[in-house]
Amino acid sequence: MCGRYRRTSSEEELCRIYNIPIPPQLDLPVSYNIVPSQTVLAIRFNLKTGQRSLDALQCGLIPHWAKDPKIAYKTINARVETVDTAPSYRQVFKKRRCLILADSFYEWEKVVGGKIPYAIGMKDDSPFVFAGLWEGWKDPSTGEWLRTCTIITGDPDELVGQIHTRMPVILPEEDHPKWLREAEDGDLKCC
């Protein structure tokens, strides 16, 4: 499970690194402790404009068919093994993928007497992205739209496997266009 992570790179720096126009009014503060239900930064691709955008999404995917937004507490993560078949994710997996920006994520190792926290990031402390999905949900009581997202998790790599049984799927830069479906043949099955 990926429940907490850090994003301390500025929006301007992330836009420069990922070649995205700087959004006019996003201004999301950096955070050393992003938790489920908070607003997070994600990269999406707009098929109509042919451009990537940096967007604010609420962490915890609410499927378009959901009646109650509380489902978001159960959908902060999507398992890579079932992301293309699970009812909450299968449609968005086909059409609405995103890259969720991070500088590190946290896992806790269970030990006798408690847990030991670890911050896991790149050796050079550079930002990276989690594979994600996003969805638009219209609140039936207010008629307002909410954009939500989920982080895809899978088996851990050798390092994280010593601490935890799962980890977020981290996509290398060369897979970003395929994941976002920037090209017609951009079909990266999953991770």
Q: What would your notes on this structure say?
A:
The model has no long low-confidence stretch (mean pLDDT 92). A five-stranded mixed beta barrel has the order 3-4-10-9-6. Strands 2-1-7-8 form a four-stranded antiparallel sheet, with no helix packed on it. The chain has a single domain, classed as SOS response associated peptidase-like (hypothetical protein yedk fold), CATH 3.90.1680.10. It has 191 residues and is mainly β. Helix content is 9%, strand content 37%. It has helices at residues 11-17, 90-95, 176-179, and strands at residues 5-7, 31-34, 39-46, 51-59, 77-79, 97-102, 104-111, 114-120, 128-138, 145-154, 167-168.
Count of helical regions: 3
**Level of helix content?**
under 10%
Note the main sheet: 5 strands, mixed, barrel
Strand content: 35-45%
What's the CATH class label? Alpha Beta
Low-confidence stretches: none
- Record field, number of beta strands: 11
CATH level-four homologous superfamily name: SOS response associated peptidase-like
CATH domain fold name: hypothetical protein yedk fold
Order of helices and strands: EHEEEEHEEEEEEH
Mean pLDDT: 92
Structural class: mainly beta
What is the alpha-carbon Rg in Å? 16 Å
Order of neighbouring strands in the sheet with most strands:
3-4-10-9-6
Give the count of structural domains. Answer: 1
The dominant shape is: globular
End-to-end CA span: 16 Å
- CATH level-two architecture: Alpha-Beta Complex
